[in-house]
Amino acid sequence: MPSEFSTIYLIRHAHSTANAAGVLAGQDRSVHLSELGSKQAELLTAVLTKMKFAKVLTSPMPRCRETISGYLKIANKSAAIAPGLNEMDYGNWSGRKLKSLAKLKLWNVIQSRPSLVRFPDGESFIEMSARANQVIADHRKVGAAICLVAHGDVIKAIVAAQLGLSLDHLQQFSIDPASITVIRISNSRSMLVKLNDTSHLSVLSNRSSSKSKPAGYVLGGGEGRI
Fold first, then answer.
1. In terms of CB atoms within 10 Å, which of 51, 148, 166, 213 comes out highest?
2. Contact, 195 vs 155, CB < 8 A?
3. Average pLDDT score over residue span 37-48
4. Other CB atoms closer than 10 Å to residue 174's CB: what's the count?
């Protein structure tokens, strides 16, 4: 890694009980990893233990802490809670079925112009992006790698901002559960090294008797393709 760059590993939490139920979890702390998610987290751990991170930061949500816990134990490291990495506050959309939310008028705006959206009694995409990208500004270290464990929409907002793209490009990225995205950042430019890498999960797909299904609803990151 060139010494002038910081390398940011963006890890989405593994498959959760809310993903399995097709529910928009938001900041619900009762959501944990599903059985599939626990298997994904084990495979993710095997990859991450090959890395050397100067710092690990995680969203306050239990599903994120559960995803990284195996790595922390093996690496004998601790993770700091970063509130800026928390999932979007979806307001009164939280806890509702995605298939019902997709029928609302606001849904189409979310897909095309998320920069205009504030969730009812909740947060705007602009506010979420600002707090998430501030975490990188506060913690990135030149010549070192840091690991951030967060959520689908949060990671998409970070990728868009770090690449100098409008927030309205948000839905052009897919961020699956337990995926790895890597960005290198210097004072003058950013480079996308890896986006939504789930190659470490291929063994789960190979063992499945069903065909891969299409990605889920484009909000909250979706439930993935396995």
1. 148
2. no
3. 98
4. 17
Rounded CA separation 143/4 (Å): 6
Residues 184-208: pLDDT tens digits? 999 889 999 999 999 999 999 755 4
Domain total in the chain: 1
- Which residue type occupies 46? A
User: Which tens digit of pLDDT belongs to each residue from 126-151?
Assistant: 999 999 999 999 999 899 999 999 99
221 in a domain, yes or no? no
User: Is the per-residue pLDDT at 214 higher than 50?
Assistant: no
Q: Which two tokens stand for residue 141?
A: 């270290």
Residues of the domain holding 63: 6-207
Check residue 29 and report its DSSP letter: T
Asked if 140 and 185 touch (Cβ cutoff 8 Å), the reply is: yes
> Which helix (H) or strand (E) element contains residue 43?
helix 35-48
> 133 Cβ partners below 8 Å, 6+ apart?
157, 158, 161, 162
Q: Is residue 222 part of a domain?
A: no
Q: Is the pLDDT of residue 226 over 70?
A: no
